[in-house]
Design brief:
Length: 274
């Protein structure tokens, strides 16, 4: 029993030292950050404030979106093709508010809700190639350990685990050797991983977003199709009172840390060796 306690204490101290030793994410300047998101909204909803901070601090933020989100509508007059166009425009508008140009959005284009049916080797290779190409100082991604992501939301689950598989594959030249032989992309070890949608118990890293919180609300407001009444019967704009109520709800209910608006992460380094 004593040995187990000592091991546990050593692990906790090691984790604490990792978090303290790393440069603060919100202090990054002139770095490259890759964001892997299942749908064109999870980046904004989960970490929009952090992305706005990164952009403000002159970092290159690249958002990689696994699906085109072409299924999530109750409007029976909506088609998948039209919804995909709407979601693309909304995501570009959200990112622009956060300081991310549309040229920095990479669409993998898989169908909404069907990511688990994409051939695994293909999907992992797509993400690994992007990692090798951009060689990021950090990756932000869905937490593969969060209960909701693991067991309920299939695109989230697949995006979480696929991204981590790609992080591993990107390190070793014998995974997807064509990336090196054909595309001249060298292997790359991702130094810092920040998982969003993490559990309260697993969260070990918080970013204060007081200064960018209103920008996050503006970016969220661009995702019109993801809120009623547009989910049931699509409309491209908001009733002013509905939008005001939405923003006020976020102001009241958004995550806080020590009295400040915050976004929480599970931070890790050397992921494949832990």
């Amino acid at each position: 029993m004593k040995l187990r306690i000592l091991i546990l204490m050593a692990c906790v101290l090691s984790l604490a030292s990792q978090v303290q030793a790393a440069e603060r994410l919100d202090h990054y300047t002139n770095k490259t950050v890759l964001v892997f998101t299942p749908h064109p909204d999870d980046d904004t909803f989960a970490v929009g404030g952090t992305l706005a901070l990164l952009s403000r601090n002159k970092n290159r933020v690249v958002v990689v979106i696994y699906t085109n989100d072409n299924k999530g509508s109750y409007d029976q007059e909506m088609t998948s093709e039209r919804l995909a166009r709407i979601r693309k425009a909304e995501e570009e508008a959200s990112c622009l508010v956060l300081g991310i140009p549309k040229e920095n959005i990479i669409w993998l284009g898989h169908d909404d809700g069907e990511l688990e049916y994409v051939p695994p080797k293909l999907l992992c290779g797509q993400a690994a190639k992007i990692i090798r190409q951009y060689r990021p100082d950090a990756i932000l991604s869905v937490d593969p350990g969060e209960w909701y992501e693991r067991w309920h939301k299939t695109d989230h689950r697949m995006a979480a685990f696929n991204t981590m598989d790609a992080v591993r594959a990107a390190e070793f030249h014998l995974y997807y050797p064509e990336h090196l032989l054909v595309d001249k992309l060298q292997p790359f070890i991702v130094p810092n991983l920040y998982f969003f949608y993490t559990t309260t118990n697993d969260a070990n890293y918080y970013v204060n977003i007081d200064s960018t919180f209103e920008l996050k609300l503006e970016a969220i407001a661009k995702q019109v199709s993801q809120f009623e009444p547009a989910i049931t019967k699509y409309r491209a704009d908001w009733e002013p009172q509905t939008l005001a109520a939405l923003k006020e709800s976020y102001r009241k209910e958004h995550e806080k840390k020590d009295g400040h608006y915050a976004e929480s992460f599970r931070f890790a380094t050397e992921f494949n060796q832990k």
